[in-house]
Amino acid sequence: LDEIIESSSLKARGVVGLFPAKRSGWEDIDVYDPQSGALLQRVCTLRQQSEKRPGIPNLALADYIAPSSLGIQDYIGAFAVTAGIGVEELVKQCAADHDDYRSIMVKALADRFAEAFAEYLHFRVRTEFWGYAPDEKLSSEDLIREKYQGIRPAPGYPACPDHTEKPKLFALIDAPNNAGVTLTESYAMWPGASVSGFYFSHPSSKYFALGRITREQVEDYAERKGFSLEEAERWLSPSLSYVPSPTLIDAA
Hints:
With 252 residues, this protein is of the alpha+beta class. It contains nine helices and seven strands, in the order H-E-E-E-E-H-H-H-H-H-E-E-E-H-H-H.
């Protein structure tokens, strides 16, 4: 590991942004400029629709942001980190040397470094930058079990499976210029060893899976995002509880 790092140009970069935010309606989050108060982005979320036991809510990430009616100044965070700067060049060097093992190790370690960097930044956010848990003192085991307050879900993952929300996140923190992370046409991050997401500080916030959703919610979501139904169905296809529109089937 030391040899790989010392003999290469591998670098890590990251950016964190904290913004005033309010819940808009039932499932959207309005994010504002800290200085001007202007609306920067409206983040759209989706709500679980599976049947729950009495007293168990159907969650949406927007539930973790206070609505304006409560008169509470709430916030949301955004971040992007990468440990993949220089990886591509080093992998090409490994290929030229016919060293497949070293190439695999470089990519694997870069991925692990990116995850560790994201974990470290989240700790700094909780205890220092945002500072909502300044006295946090957790063991390594507790950190692994995510016993800290707050979550950092990412677009494309179980709680928010729509990758098309990722450009909003990247725009808030200008991830390409501030962290060296860009998005491909299919919303994958480049360099590959990168992590991004939103920060929520609510004491009750937790990770969850959206599960299957009905056409009614997809129609509402498409309207909120300015998408056609077919486009929304395409991006949410793994989460649909129904057979999508014939237009999408024909196109496939």
